[in-house]
Amino acid sequence: MAAQLGGQPILILSDKTQRTIGRDAQRMNILAARVIAESVKTTLGPRGMDKMLVDSLGDVVVTNDGVTILKEMDVEHPAAKMMVEIAKTQDDEVGDGTTTAVVIGGELLKRAEELLDQDVHPTVVANGYRMAAEKAEEIIKDISIEVKKDDIKTLKKVAITAMTGKGAEKSKEYLADLVVKAVLAVAEEEDGKIMVDTDNIKLEKKEGGGIEDTELVQGIVIDKERVHPGMPRKIENAKIALLNTSIEIEKTEIDAEIRITDPNQLKAFIDEEERMLKDMVMKIKESGANVLICQKGIDDLAQHYLAKEGIFAVRRAKKSDMEKLARATGAKIVTNIEDLSPDDLGYAGVVEEIKIGDDEMTFVRDCKDPKAVTILIRGGTEHIVDEVERALEDCLGVVPAALEDESIVPGGGAAEVEIAKRLRDYAKTVGGREQLAIEAFADSLEVIPRALSENAGLDPIDMIVELRAKHEQEKNGVRFGLDVIEGKVKDMFKDGVVEPARVKTQAISSASEVAVMILRIDDVIAASKLEKESPPTPPEGGEGGEF
């Protein structure tokens, strides 16, 4: 890029720099973002298709989870990366609705491009989109319905809706029941508000069996076996000690040398080490503990003494598992064995080692009031287990969102059609060129019912017309959405197709924010890194004189 003012041209950017300006930059960015949206659009809804992602090592992922597809894709274009960010944000905030958010974002940009072609300024479009997003949030609050903690039936419906169309669909009733029980077990009330920390719900995967063999454990499952075959496999009325120190003789911090001149001294030295290890084990026994979970190592000799005392022990447990065990059993994590007392112990009805597949796992179950639980996921193959895990993660996003906000909206495209209808009425009151942008925003939201019907092989135009008519004419028109299985417009609340209001709010707000950001870019400057110049090679013959 060169600038010229009446004389010598001045080089501002390197000649290796690529630059796209104005309308071309906008067109290029919009196209890149739309390609991302199109790539996940066919996965939307109960009749959505799956994608197979193969990485450079040949590892395969089969899924229709929007965020997983976008994370696995090797995306280069900066505008496309922004679209991937929408999915990640949606996943972090709500856990579901990732595809919806990306598809709406892509459609907003497509409609914006049509306005730009009519010479509407990008800033006007951006302003109209912002106004529409704020209004949409108000509309969602207005159309949402309250849901209470004890309304387990509705919470199950929220989980089933999130799971529909996923690989785990055939067992959705059973899995939804597990999820709701798990969420209610770890839910806590603070100042009248329900808070759910889903980190306290551990998902442990093991191939084998069928999806129906997935179980909820009222406690924690650790992927570890007992350290010594002489220990009991099962302990009832378990009193559990949690240690985050090793049961070994510590090596000295400083370089120390012990000179032994007599065999008796050597024997005394070894006997003293043994006595110290035995003392540690006796200290654990005296506290009343019959189960020991250790975050660090346990010496072989200590394992022998523990087995003799009938104590079930596990070593090298993960820090996260230790914290969950403390929440589930009520035990305190102790750093110094000398400080271990009966008050530090936790309780579980049963601690047992069970062989699942090829591996031994330790189950800590039947805790009194566990504030951390485990869902053990089973399935025929690794791919099925992974897809069930993704479905459960979605459910573990939406059920707490519905509980915490206490509000749900109808699914099946019903909420989008209603928001679009009300936005069109709102646009008339705004006037000016912003009105065009608000109407474009309303049209963009209808991409969801359109995609749902396309993916189910229905005629999208017929379905949208019928949906709009129901929303205009019926008394409870807001509830009508698309039943893609039967290909009819139905009352979504009666059909049990419901979603947390937060899914829609987050999807619309992040889609509009990214669309606005991409629209406002009119100059893309991409500088390729300069290659390091290789040092000049010396002339042949070295530095000698003439021959």
Defining key terms:
single chain; 547 residues; alpha+beta; GROEL, domain 1; GROEL, domain 2; GroEL; 3 domains; 7-stranded mixed β-sheet; 3-stranded antiparallel β-sheet; 19% strand; elongated
Care to describe what's here?
By secondary structure, the chain is an alpha+beta fold. It has three domains: 254 residues, GROEL, domain 1, CATH 1.10.560; 88 residues, TCP-1-like chaperonin intermediate domain (GROEL, domain 2); 151 residues, GroEL. It contains 17 helices and 23 strands. Strands 11, 12, 13, 14, 15, 16 and 17 form a seven-stranded mixed β-sheet that branches. A hairpin with a 5-residue loop joins strand 4 and strand 5. Helix 3 runs antiparallel to helix 4, helix 5 packs across helix 13 and helix 14 crosses helix 15. It starts with a strand and ends in a 20-residue tail after the last strand.
Number of helices: 17
Q: Could you name the CATH class of the largest domain?
A: Mainly Alpha
Shape: elongated
Question: Helical residue percent?
Answer: 40-55%
Count of individual beta strands: 23
What is the name of the CATH architecture of the largest domain?
Orthogonal Bundle
CATH superfamily of the largest domain: GroEL-like equatorial domain
- Main sheet summary: 7 strands, mixed
Structural class: alpha+beta
Question: Could you outline the blueprint of secondary structure elements for this entry?
Answer:
Layout: E1 2-3, E2 10-11, E3 17-21, H1 22-41, E4 51-54, E5 60-63, H2 66-72, H3 78-93, H4 98-117, H5 122-143, E6 145-146, H6 152-163, H7 172-186, E7 188-190, E8 193-195, E9 201-207, E10 215-217, E11 220-222, E12 234-243, H8 263-286, E13 291-294, H9 300-308, E14 312-314, H10 319-329, E15 333-334, E16 346-356, E17 359-365, E18 373-379, H11 382-405, E19 407-410, H12 414-430, H13 434-445, H14 447-455, H15 460-473, E20 480-483, E21 488-491, H16 492-495, E22 498-500, H17 501-519, E23 523-527
Parallel strand pairs: 9-18, 12-13, 12-15, 13-14
Antiparallel strand pairs: 1-2, 3-23, 4-5, 6-19, 7-8, 10-18, 11-17, 12-16, 16-17, 19-22, 20-21
Helix pairs in contact: 1-3, 1-4, 2-3, 3-4, 3-17, 4-13, 4-17, 5-12, 5-13, 5-17, 6-7, 6-11, 7-11, 8-9, 12-13, 12-15, 14-15
